[in-house]
Amino acid sequence: MKNYSHRFRILITGGGGFLGSHLCERLLDDGHGIICLDNLFTDTKDNIAHLLDHPHFELMSHDVTFPLYVEVDETYNLACPASSLHHQFDPVQTTKISVYGAINLLGLAKRTKAKIFQASTSEVYGDPEVHPQPESYWGKVNPTGPRSC
Ligand SMILES: NC(=O)c1ccc[n+]([C@@H]2O[C@H](COP(=O)([O-])OP(=O)(O)OC[C@H]3O[C@@H](n4cnc5c(N)ncnc54)[C@H](O)[C@@H]3O)[C@@H](O)[C@H]2O)c1
């Protein structure tokens, strides 16, 4: 029997994506309330179709480059075009999502005093010579190359 005495309200941006949809499932299963925020830029509702009728699941259609005002206990910021095909479709928008998205979500976390998790990507290492990349590796980055966004 699960203990639901600590039900959190959790915001998952990019919640309709590959990682986000699994996280939504897991945290719902743990008894929490989920706000799944996604503009469905790279995905359809397919990943979360089975969650839409769950009483503690709410889908919010929103773009993280714009501020948002919700009350939450925890935030996972996973919203970003993740594959090279997607993040290079509109490199300026990808940069805005990474930067404005993080700033908006950090602002929300500060206002609500919510814990925040920020997803990163191996793309920050550029075209690395070392696999997998340890924390001590600084990468091989071309700041104006196609992966720079
Ligand atoms: N999948 C992996 O193996 C992996 C590994 C390391 C890091 N990551 C990082 O984790 C995060 C999620 O990865 P994923 O594989 O689930 O990607 P994904 O493409 O499956 O999901 C990303 C989601 O973000 C949404 N999104 C994109 N732009 C948005 C915006 N402006 N506002 C709101 N939602 C937006 C997309 O519609 C999509 O549903 C990314 O930041 C990625 O770089 C993923």
Report on the structure:
By secondary structure, this protein is of the alpha/beta class. It has a single domain (9-118), classed as Rossmann fold (3-Layer(aba) Sandwich). The protein contains three helices and five strands; from the N terminus they run βαβββααβ. The protein has helices spanning 18-29, 84-87, 91-112; strands spanning 9-13, 33-38, 57-61, 74-77, 115-118. It has a five-stranded parallel sheet with strand order 3-2-1-4-5, sandwiched between helices. β1 (9-13), α1 and β2 (33-38) form a beta-alpha-beta unit. The chain is globular and about 45 Å long. Bound molecules: nicotinamide-adenine-dinucleotide (NAD). The site of nicotinamide-adenine-dinucleotide has 24 residues, from α1.
* Widest sheet, order of strands: 3-2-1-4-5
**β content, as a range?**
15-25%
User: Which architecture name does CATH use?
Assistant: 3-Layer(aba) Sandwich
Q: What is the distance, rounded to the nearest whole angstrom, between the alpha carbons of the first and last residues? A: 46 Å
CATH class: Alpha Beta
